[in-house]
Amino acid sequence: MKPASTQPRIALAHPRLSRGGSEGALMWAVDALWPEYRVTIITTGEADLGALNAYYGTAAPPDRVHVDRAPMPAVLARSSRAAALRGFRHQRYCRKTAAQYDVLFSAYNICDFGRPAIQRVADFSWDPDVRVHTDPAGTGSRHGFHERNVLNRLYLGVCRMISPPSGRDLFAEDLFIANSRWTASVLKEKYRAAHVRMIYPPVYGGYPDVPWTERVPDFVCLGRISREKRIDTMIDILARVRQKGHSIQFHIIGEADGSSYAREIEALARKHADWVHLSGEQHGENKRRLLTSNRYALHACPFEGFGIAVAEMARAGCLPFVPATGGVPEIVDHETNLCWTTPDEAAHKIDTVLKSEPLQETLRRRVRQTAQRFHTHAYQQAIRDAVTEMQESGKMPDS
Questions:
Q1: Domain that includes residue 34, residue range
Q2: Tens of pLDDT along 60-111?
Q3: Do both 57 and 127 map to the same domain?
Q4: What is the CATH number of the domain that holds 30?
Q5: Do 335 and 384 lie in a common domain?
Q6: DSSP string, 99-167
Q7: d(Cα 269, Cα 196) in Å, to the nearest integer?
């Protein structure tokens, strides 16, 4: 380890830290880089590194990692309805301070630093065309600011006035890190990105290897209770499976945030109280117990760039059934018995697997092998390689 005074300086930018996949990728990157770099996290709002370490299993020392909070009105820093406005203000601050660093790294989607940078793309929420095409009934339907109308155009116009483009061609000049082969293909084909490197996100393990025979033949889902996750679709699918004669239970692990959609799911859970269970947000031993005591997992969010919750359930030994779109199928190696396009097809495939113990064993072996690709060590080494090459060469690493 070099003395701190001689270490290169790196900024990792993230517009707001909460408890999601992008924050996990950020923390494991910080964990990988702090011994050789002076690391600064540029964000908005609160950033408790000790709590983030505990949540993601990292060990980045708070006394060696600096947090630089971009100036932001408190109401804007907390709001879930003004992500674009917060993001553009955050970008303006990142560009203002960019000259202080040797390497610039956006840990969540694109940030125009005004200088060459690494851009880690986790989703396409920043592009209305892609978002509406891939998920027309998802996140974009929640708030008027996200809809494609006059109000939305005015809102984004104000955001761009706050932080106008620097004039650089980011897609030609910057290094883009994609979180899946599917995300990489979109970056190359739609945006003509010249430098794209695929690095799967880190999935923290720590799950005991519970034998299949000691697990109950029930289902779990993991993640926040929000409309784009389509938890109502999952309940519908498993209701169809139950009609085929399987007395399965469904455990929904995630925070109900009081939104209208969360209230819809709470009402559905009450309607099916004999088999649908809202387990709330879980951490530590409770989360491990829930995931490792059940055999199966279900996911219904289409066109996700990766699907960190699915990968975590796979690492916990569950057998996930997933949409056949986006990057999520890569987690199950595009196994046709586990990928579905309609609720009816999903129910049919689940029924087929539940009836065949030999098929279950074959699929478990395949998913277990594929899940090793998402080990934290592999992610950290790939991040170190990309950052080191860029810092030493002063140009984009070969993709």
A1: 4-202+376-393
A2: 999 999 999 988 776 666 666 667 777 778 999 999 999 999 999 999 999 9
A3: yes
A4: 3.40.50.2000
A5: no
A6: GG-SEEEESSS----SS--EEEE---TT-HHHHHHH-TTSGGGS-GGGSSSHHHHHHHHHHHHHS---S
A7: 43
Q: Pick out the chain residues at pLDDT < 50.
A: 136-146, 396-397, 399
Same domain, 250 and 343: yes
Domain match, 168 and 254 both: no
Instruction: Report how far residue 399's alpha carbon sits from residue 392's, in angstroms, rounded to the nearest whole number.
Output: 16
39: left (phi over 0), alpha (psi -120 to 50) or beta: beta
CA distance 383 to 365: 28
Distance between CA atoms of 32 and 329, rounded to whole angstroms? Answer: 28
- The rounded distance, in Å, linking the Cα atoms of 209 and 207 is 6
Are residues 40 and 106 located together in one domain of the fold? yes
Q: Report the predicted TM-score, pTM, of the whole model to 2 decimal places.
A: 0.88
| Residues 172 and 219 placed together within one structural domain of the fold | no
